[in-house]
Amino acid sequence: MSVLVIAKVTLIFALAWLALLCMRQVSASLRHVVVVVALSAALLVPLFEIVLPAWNVVPRPELSFAFESIEAPGSPAPSTATVSSVSTTPTSKSVTSGAGLTLRSVWFTGATILLLVLLVRILTMQFAARRAPVLQDQRWTGMLKDTCSALNICEPVQLRLRDEGAMPAVWGVRRPLILLPTDCLTWSDARCRDVLAHELAHVRRSDVLLLTLAHVVCALHWFHPLAWLLKRRLSMESEYACDDLALSQGVPAPRYADHLLRTATEFFEQHSLAPVMAAQSQLEGRIMAILETTKSRGRATIRAQLLVAALAAIALVPLSSMTWAQADNMWANVTEHAHQHSDSDSAQFATHLQEIGIAADDVDTLLTAIGAAEALTRAASAWALGASNDPRVVDPLMQAGYDNDAIVRQWAVRSLAPWNVLRVGRMLIDRLQDTDAEVRQWAVRSLNRHEASLKAQPLVNTLGDSDTEVREWAARGLADVDEPFVKTALTNRIAIESNADVSEWLVRALRGGKDQSVDALLSALNSESADVRQWAVRGLSGTQDGRAVDALIMMLVDNNAEVREWSVRGLGVCGNERAIGPLQAMSQDPSAEVREWAGRALEQIDC
After folding, report:
1. Domain 377-606 belongs to what architecture?
2. In 267-392, which residue ranges form alpha helices assigned H by DSSP?
3. Is the pLDDT at 90 greater than 70, yes or no?
4. Which residues lie closer than 8 Å to 488 by C-beta, 6 or more apart?
5. Beta carbons within 10 angstroms of residue 302's beta carbon
């Protein structure tokens, strides 16, 4: 169990206690709902961390690794890939890693033991309850039927006899049993009804199941005192709520309190998971609550329960998504547009390598680990090998590019980005057909660093990919390819592309060639995206086609200031005298930048 999970669970438990402190005047039933929701959230946090997208906002208090800037292989004066830790030494890393493994082992051992003990207790209680003889008494059976009807309990409930002197209790979820002491046959009708009302209230509220859930939470968070305190609070609120439910059936409070006290003094508690009627530790508080006339005894309505659950979900989803913030710079300039980036995988990989005792700059060990049985180890190894300029890493990374795990394949193609060699390029082209969109995207981004003659046709084919980011990076990669068939492909794609970001990069790539494909650029001027229109205007700047001048003049009235500014600048480059009148009118434009560039454009035309 990670430090971050413990922190999240602690926050949940603390908020639950704060809510309980503010809810002293509300019914026990509603307080019980709050405790149940808090314990359930503690179980869901680790699961949600896996299935929800990571939200990198929590500053990492532990040691973290950051790759320094790496020169691509083959570049002038390549630097050796180094991995540096923040404010630590290799010795402290090893100590921290060992301590982390020890703590995880201790937690796992404790949780396993407690879960096994819980399983044994459940099986023992189940065996004892099912072996208990059925109570065949018409008086008890009749009162059981009447009380079940009053509490709207539809499932069949059996009465069984347990050891003499054992306190009344309830057990079971699907087929609930009420366990009574053997001398219950001598009780008065009033006492019988009071006991049945209380125990059937447990059945009505599914308290056996919820108490078992609390035991599971305590087993998993055995080290956390708040978990045990909430389990105890759950049991207490459960008893208070059952007392309220029994009293709501018309049971006189003094009589009910008297029967509760007699039960506590005449019978003993057995160490079991079954909720008992009169636990000694809760007796005084319960009797005072029963006799208090102003106390709220209403049941938690469905609306109130849904409200508590909704509020918990609203807080739980973002809380579970939070993960350590990091800035692991794997390599510099993966593409011409790449900057230092944070990856949700990076912190996990660095931590994992620490835990299994592999240094992130130990190439020999990493080359072995990239073939490990565990996918996480293979992915972390591929990640770390991206920081090396050792030629030995190329072939293992190429093989990892065909791994059966998508994360491993993704990091393999990412780590191959600096290797501008033919066999790597061909492998990246093959990965453009990968079933995972992230793998295809990073194959495109890595391929973009290769020669135009190798990448042009594959990237043109990728313009039709189903994933928008893959198409966008393909368009980016074609910006430096000056081939007629590429310009034709970009022109054709602009006409059918529905995504604004992709359209922007198609226009930006198109404007870089000698043949500006004016028709496509003119069509892009009608885009709803201001960025697309701006780059279309910039693409038309300097074009000798007469239609370009008319189009730029038309764009002077665009509602976006940057589009108007680049239209003005384009007209200045074109130098056509037809633009003088429209440019003079731009002296009244609300944007100072537009007015300034209009003056410059007029000076260019006059010259």
Report:
1. Alpha Horseshoe (1.25)
2. 283-291, 302-321, 344-355, 363-369, 375-385
3. no
4. 517
5. 8
Residue 133, Cβ density class (10 Å: 0-12 exposed, 13-18 middle, ≥19 buried): exposed
CB-CB contact of 592 with 562 (8 Å): no
Q: How many residues does the chain have?
A: 607
- Distance between CA atoms of 586 and 172, rounded to whole angstroms? 82
Could you please state the CATH topology (level 3) that the domain comprising 1-49+100-317 is classified under.
Answer: Zincin-like (3.30.2010)
138: tokens are: 């018409």
**pLDDT bucket at 219, cuts 50 / 70 / 90:** very high
206 with 32: CB under 8 angstroms? no
User: Does pLDDT of 97 surpass 50?
Assistant: no
Look-up of token digits 């006991």: 195
Q: Quote the pLDDT of residue 278.
A: 63
Residues of the chain with CATH 1.25.10.10: 377-606
* Range list for CATH 3.30.2010.10 in the chain: 1-49+100-317
For 183-205, the pLDDT digits (tens) are: 888 889 999 999 999 999 999 98
Contact 389, 411 (CB under 8 A): no
Tens of pLDDT, residues 526-583 = 888 888 888 888 888 866 677 888 888 888 888 999 888 888 888 888 777 888 888 8
